[in-house]
Specification:
single chain, mainly alpha, two-stranded antiparallel ribbon, 2 strands, globular
Length: 112
């Protein structure tokens, strides 16, 4: 996070990961889960499904989909979120490439 003073006001600019900015543990994993939950919600909305209808497709209770819809990802592993997306007809591709620094990054890119 970058801090500067503009017109006498302290302005803090985030670094692109709110979880890292807040100092939470495992910020890249948290951001990945948030993006996966967003992709799940977008696909359910794109298809015009209710949470109940989607739940039958992905084998989750409506209450579990409600937690995903509200961004409450505790209790959901990335593997489980991958499986939900697959059951919604989305393909998951994982690419491994050289890191630009000593530690690699977790990246997420959603395509149409």
């Amino acid at each position: 996070m970058k801090t500067e003073i503009i017109d006498g006001e302290i302005v803090r600019t985030g670094g692109g990961n709110v979880f890292a900015d807040l100092g939470l543990p495992h910020p890249e994993e948290r951001l990945l889960k948030a993006k996966l939950m967003h992709a799940i919600n977008a696909e359910i909305e794109r298809r015009g499904l209710t949470q109940e209808e989607a739940g039958k497709l992905v084998r989750l209770k409506q209450s579990e989909l409600s937690r995903i819809a509200n961004g409450r990802g505790s209790g959901f592993s990335t593997d489980r979120l991958f499986e939900v997306l697959r059951r919604l007809g989305r393909t998951i591709e994982i690419h491994v490439s050289a890191a630009s620094g000593p530690i690699g990054e977790l990246c997420f890119q959603e395509t149409a």
